[in-house]
Amino acid sequence: AVVGITPIVNKEVGVKDISMENLRKLFTGEITNWKELGGKDQPVVILNRASGSGTRSTFEKWVLDGETAIRAQEQDSSGMVRQIVADTPGAISYVAFSYVTNDVATLSIDGVEPTDDNVTTNKWIIWAYEHMYTKNQPKQLTKEFLNYMLSEEVQNNIVGELGYIPVSRMQVERDWEGNIVK
């Protein structure tokens, strides 16, 4: 499956679209007030996922482009991140699409909205493949489970219901370094 990741903000910040450069500046601490982006005169409150989080790694790879994120509060849970952003004036963070609810707002980047369709074409570049790992060669029951997870039934129905994108919908493909190869 593929997971799209989007920046989320407290609904009162007054910003709906941001450039990738300005998003990077928020998370590196160069922009510290929403009024610098045309929003409310309100301090920016950064909230990061925990170090080692796949969500954080993906966000930092595609948004920070090698720069270091500002030290900020960290949370292990995407659900907790969403709740804190919803409850905290000026807050911004990032979550998988499946965690977006109507109590937070997503940000478009350079006019591109965070949608499944935009992920499938790579117009929205903040996405990653989900993985399932086994230790050594899988035993029979594990093979059966993996085959089930890759079945059309799961990929065409359950994956989408869980907020992920079936790999079969992707019109592009990335190699392990993130380069588009298809």
Question: Could you give a quick summary of the protein structure above?
Answer:
With 182 residues, the chain is an alpha/beta fold. It is 30% helix and 17% strand.
Give structural notes.
The protein is elongated, with a radius of gyration of 17 Å. Strands 1, 3, 4, 5, 6 and 8 form a six-stranded mixed beta sheet that branches. The protein has a domain at 2-120: Periplasmic binding protein-like II (D-Maltodextrin-Binding Protein, domain 2), CATH 3.40.190.10. Helix 2 (54-64) links the parallel strand 3 and strand 4 (73-75). By secondary structure, the protein is α/β, with parallel strands linked by helices. Helices cover 30% and strands 17% of the residues.
Considering the chains and any ligands shown, give keywords for the structure.
182 residues; alpha/beta; D-Maltodextrin-Binding Protein, domain 2; six-stranded mixed sheet; two-stranded parallel ribbon; 6 helices; signal; palmitate; lipoprotein; phosphate transport; Substrate-binding domain-containing protein
